[in-house]
Amino acid sequence: MNEISCPAERLRAWMAANHVQGDHLSFAESCHSVAEAAAAAGISPEDLVKSICMIADNGMLLVAIVKGEDRASARRLGQAAGCPMPRLATPTEMLAATGYPCGGTPPFGFAARFFIDERVFDREIVYGGGGTATTLVRIAPRELQRLNGATVARIRK
């Protein structure tokens, strides 16, 4: 089977294969930052989630999913993961570990330990990275948790 090289196409294929209850959205405008994504999608920053990739001391990829206006706490993520405080992954490490670029990393679809901040569940629908800087996914937080098997904890600063 041929590997799909475009990150957005690869994510769409993963979503179809895993029967994701959500939408993959493409925009002409950049969605790299929270402000850009909110403007492109016509939503508020509070509707967005970010996938913050960190590396544990054993090399495991940890993904902190927090609301767009929040910042992930490495200390709290480490506590939730039961490991010493992880460090932020570099863009190169993120691409190597997830297959997706920084600024487009989706909140599911690759191997990692996922953690969702409890405030994400304040919204019925959230928008997260869609695989590229011009794509987003629209999904319910419970579906997001089902897909990535995330632990729910307070991981924001």
UniProtKB/TrEMBL annotation:
InterPro entries reported for this sequence: YbaK/aa-tRNA-synt-asso_dom_sf, YbaK/aa-tRNA-synth-assoc-dom
YbaK/aminoacyl-tRNA synthetase-associated domain sequence ranges: 29-147
Gene3D superfamilies per record: YbaK/aminoacyl-tRNA synthetase-associated domain
Signal peptide: none
Alphabetized SUPFAM superfamilies for the sequence: YbaK/ProRS associated domain
Pfam families: tRNA_edit
PANTHER family: CYTOPLASMIC PROTEIN
Annotated protein name in UniProt: YbaK/aminoacyl-tRNA synthetase-associated domain-containing protein
Species of the source: Geotalea uraniireducens
